[in-house]
Amino acid sequence: MILYLLRRIVYAIPIALAVGFVCFMLVQIAPGDPINAIVPPDAPADVVEQVRKDYGLDKPLPVQFALWLSKVVVGDLGRSLATGRPVWSDLRTAIANTLTLAFTASSLGFILGCVLGGWRGPSAAPSSTGRRWAWRWPASRCRTTGSAW
């Protein structure tokens, strides 16, 4: 079992690097200059170059990727170009909203699945009492007892 886990971790390393590279390149090939989101359009050229240097965008792409990867590995996601806040604070807000939405959707799906399953499930039953039984015991329709579990 430990050998299996180690093998899976070793397989995950190149996959994580490839996903990181794809994400990095998607940001790089996006249209427009990210510096335009930071400095005003009428900013002098020397200010634009200084901001570009501060963010490391004046370096070649392989060097930018290596710097980005070295920071991401230790958990430093930097500052957002759009908001200027640390990326972790933006992610915390997004994760909280995502978890709220996921919990609400899962709860709604579970409740609707139980109710609709209890309503439609017994319609295939040969007796007329099946429908009433399902409404008295809706929890009996919410169990998963398949061989996959």
User: What is the helix/strand order?
Assistant: HHHHH
End-to-end Cα distance = 21 Å
User: Total number of helical segments?
Assistant: 5
Given helix and strand content, the structural type is: mainly alpha
Task: Tell me the strand percentage band.
Answer: under 5%
Count of individual beta strands? 0
Binned, the helix content reads: 55-70%
The largest β sheet comes out as:
none
Q: What Rg do the Cα atoms give?
A: 27 Å
Shape: flat
Write a structural description.
It is a single chain. With 149 residues, the protein is mainly alpha-helical. It is 62% helix and 0% strand. The chain is built from five helices and no strands. It is flat.
Layout of secondary structure:
Elements (H helix, E strand, L loop, with lengths): L1 H28 L15 H10 L6 H13 L13 H34 L8 H8 L13
Could you write a compact summary of the structure shown?
This protein is mostly helical and 149 residues long.
Question: Can you give keywords for this protein?
Answer:
mainly alpha, flat, 5 helices, 149 residues
